[in-house]
Specification:
Two copies of one chain form a homodimer. Chain A is an alpha+beta fold. Helices cover 15% and strands 28% of the residues of chain A. The first copy, chain A, is built from four helices and five strands, in the order ββαβαββαα. A five-stranded antiparallel sheet of chain A has the order 1-2-3-4-5. In chain A, a hairpin with a 5-residue loop joins strand 1 and strand 2. The radius of gyration of chain A is 16 Å and the shape is globular. Strand 1 of chain A pairs antiparallel with strand 4 of chain B.
């Protein structure tokens, strides 16, 4: 995985600097959490769940993909997501396309720019019992995982999405 | 395919209202063109090429997918794209997510809104010889194809992307 910069906003894993606003209380945040330590193999061949875009100071563009278990659960509306579900958010800079704009004759076009990071949610109700069955992973473009402070920010935010089993991204038809 | 509205901007098929600015000369635009008449089956299961976003008055959000031939060609850097390549751009409204913003505490989040249309580029060097081997397709959310005027706008714009065999979208790693 060759990805260069180190931006951190996510749409599935909202483990992001701006989300440190969710400074969890001890009641919310177990002292020791298990995170996803390895990049799930084959994720780039998974099917599309949806797309996402975060602005403010982030300028982040995402494709959200799911493994077969995730796609089946999304399409069937299965909640909670079954063990084995993995959701991946591939993040890029939300970049102006000067090339397209020149052809279009308008300032209108944005494309996936520099890859920044990939975030994962892995469902394993035993392994990640302390975070409602979800393991969170963040890997910078150089393949290195996010630091402890970043990773601690995932669950407190995601747990606010209670009606959809902690998953923000909806399926795009 | 249940898709409701009738917006038209594309990233692969830039067969869009705003692109009528490319009112082609007779030299550019053959009098009778063959278009893609049927929606290619299984496109929603294809793999990701990239994401795209068109603003100005469009507010369009896209996931660009490719069939196996397309993905193989993209990854190998094969140009021109071989016969059998199909590229699909699934378009949605670029929608504010009030739900996410409420959780994030900031006005920052955009998601795939109402589905609008799907556009296809199909490579068949014989069938679509008049348009450099590409057949263009546009299907509104109700499954109906784009009208003649819209379809006539595809090739004159795409042919300006000569260095990448008329394809705008680049592969996102």
């Amino acid at each position: 995985m060759k990805r260069i910069t180190n931006l951190t906003i996510g749409t599935i894993g909202v483990c992001a600097a701006t989300l440190m606003i969710f400074s969890a209380s001890r009641a919310d945040q177990p002292a020791s959490l298990a995170f996803v330590k390895e990049i799930p193999p084959g994720y780039r061949d998974w099917r599309l769940i949806s797309v996402a875009h975060e602005e403010d100071d982030l300028h982040s563009f995402a494709a959200v993909l799911g493994n077969d278990t995730a796609i089946a659960a999304y399409r069937a509306g299965t909640l909670p997501y079954p063990d084995g579900t993995i959701i991946a958010a591939l993040h890029y800079r939300h970049a102006v396309s000067d090339e397209n704009n020149k052809i279009f004759g308008k300032e209108q076009s944005f494309v996936a720019g520099t890859p920044t990071n990939i975030q994962f949610m892995v469902k394993d109700s035993k392994k990640y019992a302390a975070t409602r069955g979800w393991g969170f992973g963040h890997f910078n473009n150089d393949g290195k995982p996010g630091d402890e402070k970043l990773m601690q920010s995932c669950f407190p935010c995601h747990q606010r999405e209670k009606d959809r089993d902690l998953v923000f991204t909806k399926y795009a038809p």
